[in-house]
Description:
mainly alpha
Amino acid sequence: MKRGTDWVAHAVLCLGVALFALPLWLVFAASTQESGAIARGNVSLIPDPAGLGVYAQVLTEGAPGAGPVWRMMLLSFAMALGITIGKIIISVLSAYAVAFFRFPFRMVAFWTIFITLMLPVEVRIIPTYAVMAGFGLINSFTGLVLPLIASATATLLFRQVFLSIPDELVEAARMDGAGPWRFLRDILLPVSAANIAALFVILFVYGWNQYLWPLLVATDPKLDTIVIGIVKMIGTETATEWNRVMATALLALLPPVAVVLLMQRWFVKGLTEGDK
């Protein structure tokens, strides 16, 4: 009975892998073929080795309507990293304040943060743009990152982790003379390491895939992220070089996939040990 169950589980797993891998293989195969063949729908599932040079071309030259892919990927990486680190720092500090400090309207502040989860990004994007314009941060890297470094979800998750800290540990740290910063640095951050790693992966992918905000706040081509660049490569007035679009889309997958693979162990640990 167990062997039959294992066989079914493996069959379902293989089917899931095929469903995810086949589109990626199709994109890879299409990137090595002529743009005209892709436009006509005559895409072969067998890659053409002679067309692999398209990856070097898009990295250095890009495509009509977009700059070099290496520059857009570097900007996207810096933006995603800035958003991720900013969200984690602000969320840890705000959750620490709400969980351990006693000040007037503490829970009002927490619920105000929590209520922002109910608001779609589209509702807040115009006021956010007005604020950034008031500070003169339109068409700047700071304007790309700054409005996205607050996270109500991460604050809520860190608060739950901090509230699970035993009172005895808090009292022991207090009796040893640990101040607020030392308590945060030596106790809370090590305890939350797995959660921080899991959130790092999730928030990095979130920052890497940003489209609406960069489209609105950055009109300078030098500030095009990789997602914006792919959209610009799909021309309207000129023929789209689909092989370059496919190659760029495949290259855009590499950094987030690398982050997930490198932090896979911590990511799973953070998801499974969040209540400990």
